[in-house]
Design goal:
The chain is mainly α and 364 residues long. The chain has 13 helices and four strands. α5 crosses α6.
């Protein structure tokens, strides 16, 4: 059943990212990451669901971009021109989005649908700024729209609609199958659920702006009675089961978020999935991999990392969470110290009958 989850992840894939890709920025600002570990790439699949039942998509998002050699990556200007052309076609056809966040989401969707454009995830938000600034300064609305740009604009629009349909259906599946019938759903609880669904489906390639825009669109059209009455396919239920395993850890999520925020503030570190995983493993949180559905703390940490970027407010940090952050910091330092390579760089290297002296000198 896990292949269903991989198939629907394609709805959120901007591109198969390079191995050293960094996720988007942290919840509050754009600090560089101190943990440049590689992120697992999901394998592209071919099927995507429609609004009310699963159906094959006209084009898998995994086909939009294939892994490219870094040496052949286009320059910023080469990326900018085709995206501007498609953005022009989009606004001529569908109009310019009223909200700035929605416009940024459109740019992200366009990038995802042009196979000649390659933008590192850590640079996507900045690239959106460049595209929008160029678009505003050049007055692209009145320019001629070619057929290729028109088709790509329509494709980006469909891509955005499919993302919203996916999240809506998974939310319905969760409410019908895993939520208690007597539960009340205030706006904040619905918001948290939607954020969890999006963070669970996203593989790290959906931009922060795109994610927040998607949250807003789902929330704006959410109706509880409609969600409870909508038909949901088994595929949606399979995804909702994973979401349910994360929702059950709601208190833990809040604790990890506060500790992580304290850690970042105290030690001028950068929020990353690796930091979150270390907080869970080395802090006194008593969570084992078997306690999440996937049995994988890495997946749980990546979900949390992206979800924290969708949260507008910074968490309230208690003294105990500050202390835990300090303990985690010490544990990480101790671990690195214990695993330091035992190499004396001041010694020469013996190769047969020859010895190559070291350029370093020991100082006591």
């Amino acid at each position: 059943m896990f292949w269903f989850f991989r198939a629907f992840l394609n709805l959120f894939r901007r591109s198969p990212a390079p191995a050293n890709r960094l996720p988007p920025s942290n919840p509050s600002d754009n600090r560089p990451d101190t943990q440049p570990d590689t992120q697992p790439d999901t394998q592209p699949d071919t099927s995507m669901p429609s609004e009310n039942q699963p159906a094959a998509s006209s084009r898998s998002l995994g086909e939009h971009l294939s892994p490219q050699n870094n040496k052949n990556r286009p320059s910023s200007f080469e990326n900018l021109k085709p995206v501007l052309n498609v953005l022009r076609a989009y606004t001529v056809t569908f109009g310019r989005p009223d909200a700035a966040l929605d416009l940024r989401a459109v740019v992200g969707a366009i990038v995802a649908n042009i196979d000649t454009v390659s933008i590192e995830n850590s640079q996507l938000e900045g690239f959106m700024d460049e595209v929008i600034a160029a678009y505003d300064s050049l007055g692209m609305e009145s320019s001629f729209v070619d057929v290729t740009a028109q088709l790509l604009a329509e494709q980006a629009a469909v891509w955005l609609k499919e993302q919203k349909a996916t999240v809506t259906n998974v939310v319905s599946a969760y409410l019908q199958q895993f939520a208690d019938s007597g539960e009340t759903w205030e706006p904040n609880r619905v918001l948290n659920l939607v954020q969890t669904v999006i963070a669970t489906l996203n593989d790290g390639s959906l931009s922060k702006s795109g994610g927040r825009s998607l949250v807003n669109k789902v929330i704006d059209t959410f109706e509880l009675d409609q969600a409870l009455g909508r038909w949901v396919a088994p595929e949606w239920i399979a995804l909702a089961q994973r979401v349910a395993s994360y929702v059950e850890k709601g208190d833990l999520q809040s604790t990890v978020q506060s500790i992580a925020w304290s850690y970042v503030q105290q030690f001028q570190a950068i929020l990353s999935p690796q930091l979150l995983e270390q907080i869970i493993e080395r802090g006194p949180l008593n969570l084992s991999p078997a306690e999440v559905l996937s049995g994988d703390l890495n997946e749980f940490s990546n979900m949390l990392y992206y979800k924290f970027q969708l949260l507008e407010a910074d968490p309230v940090v208690t003294k105990s969470e500050v202390a835990i952050a300090a303990d985690v910091h010490k544990a990480i330092k101790d671990f690195k110290q214990r695993n330091k390579p035992n190499i004396d760089v001041t010694k020469g290297i013996q190769t047969g009958d020859l010895e190559i002296s070291s350029p370093f000198t020991r100082t006591d």
